[in-house]
Amino acid sequence: MTVIWFVVWFIANAIGGGEPLTFDPVNGWTGTLLLAIALDLGRAHVPAGRGRASREP
Asked: What is the pTM of this model?
């Protein structure tokens, strides 16, 4: 997910206005980067065999 975020940001930065990533205060791009990192790290805590992929049809 973080790699997908980076590709989207890179394209938007090349085409758009070139907004920098700032952490003080957090802007929109930095907020979505933090969200992508949190989702990637949170996925490691999900036990195997849980969720939609493991359900029997």
From this structure: 0.64
For every residue of 21-50, DSSP letters joined together read: P-BTTB-HHHHHHHHHHHHHHHHTTSPTT-
Q: Measuring CA to CA, which residue among 53, 39, 45 is closest to residue 3?
A: 39
CA 12, CA 42: separation in Å to the nearest integer? 26
Q: In angstroms, rounded to a whole number, what is the distance separating the alpha carbons of residues 52 and 26?
A: 34
Q: What is the pLDDT of residues 10-55, one digit of tens each?
A: 888 888 877 788 888 888 888 999 998 888 888 777 777 655 655 5
Which two tokens mark 44?
A: 């490691």
Name the residue among 14, 32, 12, 11 with its Cα closest to residue 22: 32
